[in-house]
Amino acid sequence: MAAEIRMPQLGLTMTEGTIINWLKQVGDTVKKGEPLLEIETDKLTSEIESEADGVLLAACANEGDDVPVKGLLGVIGTKGEKINIDEILVKENKKENLDSIEEEKEQTTQQAGETIPAKRIKISPLAKKTARKMNVDYSEIIGSGISGRIIQRDILNNMEKVKSRVIDSEEKIIPKEVERREKLSGMRKVIAERMFKSHNEIPAVTQNVKVDVTDLMEFRKKINENREQKISINDFVLKAVAKALTANRHILVSLDGDEIVYHHHINLGMAVSVDNGLIVPVIKDADKMGIEALSLTAKDLAERARENKLNMDECSGSTFTISNLGMLHVETFTPIINQPDAAILGVCEIQDELALEEDKVVVRKKMRISMTYDHRLMDGATAARFKVAVKDLLENPMDVIL
Predict the structure, then answer these.
(1) Which residues lie closer than 8 Å to 163 by C-beta, 6 or more apart?
(2) Bridge partner list, 128
(3) pLDDT digit string (tens) for 139-165?
(4) The domain spanning residue 48 has which CATH number?
(5) Is 254 in contact with 340 (CB distance < 8 Å)?
(6) Which listed site, 90, 125, 280, 395, has its alpha carbon 20 to 30 Å from 388?
(7) Beta-carbon neighbour count of residue 360 at 10 Å?
(8) Are 204 and 118 contained in the same domain?
């Protein structure tokens, strides 16, 4: 009997996945536990394994398609087994969303007092949702999916054709050269959605303060002299933030409807740049770690993030986030809050500045930190006190490790 392959939910926040590559083709023999295809979510790329032995009878989604959680990916059965793929897709569409499916459903329209059968349209729920959002008429689009089914790619391609023309003042159609276009990847798309959502939903305020890290630089140099595993400035920042949060737990909040959620754990999200995106692995219970353990954990998470080897649990559950752009020579910036956190701390470049000390001009090392916070959950003075606590720790590095 044929077995269905469905999109798994790899994390609590996952709603859909993008098919990157089919590792097996229709007609190939597969074994239980053998990788069938690769998918990409907002956080990572994963292989989907077969849950049964048999032959891949059908691939119900193409590479590049976005498939919702529990959506049908393909069918595995015995060699020579016959299946009606059109019937399977009809049932699948009705199961996914009865209100948005027009596949194999005959509608009627009233025209001049007569009942005229409407054209039958095969369209995936995701394609229809995209068409509605982008105001695209899909009634004349020829689908490239199985049995002529319209998929999201067809909607996006149709949009490109429309945008490749402009209408001049005399209503003449003038061809226009189309720039190279590339569909948003699963990660890039979710980043765009989340950043837009955060920016529009949250009344965010950013405060900037300059920190004198001259003593910190000297202190770090001394403790790293005979140390194989070097402690970075970012490690000190992580430890200072974790320590400051223990005395300012009112920062560890999030908004759930009309309720404020107070978090007990200090879980530091750490923004890591990867190819074509950004991942925020989470250091759980960072306040309970010494600086060396914190350093090892941070480096391990960052390395595995770039190698796409993190699991979903390692990318969720943050209660405060840190984004360090200092190594990229950023002097100051406005970080966007990583929801559901209430705040995020941006770390900037360390620069030399001249200062007057005892009638002498000296060079001091200065670094800006930029904290963006949700004004619904905390006020300016509350955020400033926390920021000052971080500043004081960084300017007195011995206090960070004690």
Answers:
(1) 178
(2) none
(3) 888 887 656 778 777 887 877 665 554
(4) 2.40.50.100
(5) yes
(6) 280
(7) 7
(8) no
Give dist(CA 23, CA 1) in Å, integer: 22
Q: Are residues 72 and 127 in the same domain?
A: no
Which of 149, 146, 156, 95 is CA-nearest to residue 121?
149
Between CA 204 and CA 337 the distance in angstroms is 8
**This model's pTM is above 0.70:** no
Find the domain containing 120 and state its range: 108-175
Q: Is there a single domain that holds both residue 201 and residue 329?
A: yes
Q: What is the pLDDT of residues 298-322, one digit of tens each?
A: 999 999 999 888 888 898 899 999 9
CA-based Rg of the chain, rounded to a whole angstrom? 27
| 199: annotated active-site residue | no
